[in-house]
Specification:
single chain; six-stranded mixed beta sheet; 14 strands
């Protein structure tokens, strides 16, 4: 596989949000995914000496967009294209490019695929960039978790998660929050007989105690351990007493248990 001089930088923002900078060190171009707040992103762009060309907004929640005006205002670049979902255009900041499921966009010269991953909100998008094996999922698929269903239905979120699950195993999952402490405790509480989960729980315990971000993760480990991707797996259905049930119903039950956890 051809080596690209592209690195994704994880930028902690606010209390527990993540923004991401996709940076090409050869061209100096950078794109940002989500803008919880401007300052840490501006600092990282300056450190990289990067020129911001694009911002992708995954969904309309304030903790993913509120830093945008300051970022655009303070950025040293004068041509920054803001990209977001057509379906959300009425409640996102002004967009230069509105996109929908199946659209291809060029992100600092790389092909990016837009996926509608509604559930947390309706109109939530994910960005998949095959050339760097990366998917930016924000509050849809999260590290050992998934977003709460504020707008969509369980059936809708389950469909979104299945599409993300179908991406190549080696895909790196860049999600929007550091929620691992709660997500790991919840996953453990379900009592699934799953050696991969035991292994990952030990690993994230170390990460959490050392203050190391648990984002990004790989799709491979999410498939093996994320309860919300396992609604159609026998050992998970067994653990929650729903053997043979419709996976969408199993997903709904797991999501409801998490809401009350
Ligand atoms: Zn959100
Ligand atoms: Fe969020």
């Amino acid at each position: 596989m051809q080596h690209l001089p592209v690195t994704v930088h994880t930028v902690p923002c606010l209390q527990d949000n993540y923004a991401f900078i996709i940076h090409n060190s050869q061209t100096g171009q950078a794109a940002v995914v989500d803008v919880p707040e401007a300052a840490p992103i501006l600092a990282k762009l300056a450190e990289l000496n990067a020129s911001l060309t694009q911002v992708v907004l995954t969904h309309h929640h304030w903790d993913h967009v509120d830093g945008l005006p300051e970022l655009l205002d303070q950025s040293t670049s004068n041509q920054v294209a803001v990209i977001g979902a057509t379906a959300d255009a009425h409640r996102l900041p002004p967009l230069d490019l509105s996109v929908e499921d199946g659209d291809q966009v060029q992100i600092i010269g790389l092909d990016g695929d837009i996926m509608d991953v509604s559930g947390h909100t309706v109109g939530h998008i994910a960005l998949h960039i095959p050339a760097i094996s990366a998917v930016f999922t924000a509050d849809s698929l999260m590290a050992m978790g998934c977003g709460r269903l504020f707008e969509g239905t369980p059936t809708q979120m389950w469909a979104s998660l299945q599409r993300l699950r179908d991406l190549p195993d080696a895909t790196t999952v860049y999600s929007g929050h550091e929620y691992m402490a709660g997500n790991a405790a919840f996953a453990q509480s379900l009592g699934e007989d799953n050696p991969a989960l035991t292994t990952r729980l030990a690993q994230v315990k170390t990460q959490i105690s050392q203050g190391i971000p648990t984002v990004p993760s790989t799709l491979n480990e999410e498939k093996a351990t994320n309860p919300f991707l396992r609604a159609d797996v026998g050992s998970m259905q067994m653990a929650i007493g729903m053997v043979g049930a419709d996976p969408a119903d199993v997903f709904a039950e797991i999501r409801q248990r998490k809401d009350n956890f």
